[in-house]
Design goal:
Two copies of one chain form a homodimer.
Chain A (H helix, E strand, L loop, with lengths): L6 E5 L5 E3 L2 H4 L9 E6 L6 E5 L2 H10 L6 H11 L3 E4 L5 E3 L2 H7 L4 E6 L4 E4 L1 H16 L2 H9 L3
Chain A binds a DNA duplex (30 and 30 nucleotides) through loops.
Chain lengths: 153, 153
DNA sequence: CATATACCCATTGACGCCCATATAATCCCA
DNA sequence: TGGGATTATATGGGCGTCAATGGGTATATG
């Protein structure tokens, strides 16, 4: 499986280390399996992360925005200037930078949420609450969620 | 046969393992025959499952949504973070995650119901009851059922 | 020199792999 | 075509490996 899926809650130890879930590590290309990038989510108080390869994809997405719009500057500033690369140790752990932990209110535990081509890191309670709210919003339009899950190609 | 059909009731052993019915295993592509995805059914207290190929389809569809829209986040959160991949061992068994067992009230036995391109896993009694109710609902609209069953292509 | 970070080692529990058996389905040949 | 032989499926259990976690120590960096 080459997608970030499922959710995991891992502990942050005294040294600030936390294990990147094993299934997430396996999504990273074998070449750069010891490095990920992290940045503040634009829309939620969470951290987003992915392999370094995904940077190009993000750049493309932002490039597709209207160059002269306010959004363009806002997104490129918010994302690119805030990106932090982190190393993963031999045991599969990494350090969440203090600034990002503050942004996401993360203290002793980190909840990892698969998002397909990237993942999010939440303070566990906030993350679960966010999942519920997302689902509630979507269920208001049952048809679209069903379609997404059951449609045949 | 490349569809999930028929129903089976299998036991869950001490370790939590349960056999995926052989005919279901044969529906999975030989390439990814050792992995399936599971998620909570939207409309019923049951688990739905299918091969990983379907997940990639879903990923593609979500990826085509506007990256910066709220829908994008809602879909990827509700789907990717809720999906769980499980491995199938050499004997054709897999583990049903605790959270999903709770959701479906599954304890010692699991009932598998073929649903064509996917399948459902139920607590046996609930599953059979659901089948009856489904059929009863259909019979109330005999006309449409007749049409469905007798129509020639 | 002080703090932060990487590396190494250890522990625990969960999971995957292997082997075994009983029942059911299929085959195969006289 | 009957019936024994072979294969497949569902199920049980032992055991090694890996993931998550904790901690000691070396190293780097300012």
């Amino acid at each position: 499986m080459d997608l970030f899926v499922s959710k995991y809650i891992n502990k942050i130890d005294k040294k600030g280390r936390v294990s990147l879930p094993s299934s997430f590590r396996n999504v990273l290309p074998k070449a750069n399996r010891n490095e990920i990038i992290l940045y503040k989510s634009i829309k939620t108080p969470s951290i987003e992360g992915c392999g370094v390869g995904r940077l190009k994809e993000i750049a493309k997405r932002i490039n597709n925005l209207d160059f002269f719009s306010e959004d363009y500057d806002d997104f490129s500033t918010s994302i690119f200037s805030e990106i932090i690369t982190t190393n993963i140790d031999k045991e599969g752990r990494f350090l969440i930078p203090e600034e990002l932990k503050l942004y996401a209110s993360i203290k002793s535990e980190a909840a990892f949420f698969g998002q397909g081509h990237y993942f999010q890191i939440w303070e566990p309670k906030k993350g679960l609450k966010n999942t519920e709210e997302s689902r509630r919003r979507l269920l208001k339009e049952k048809k679209s969620l069903r379609m997404m899950l059951t449609q045949q190609k």
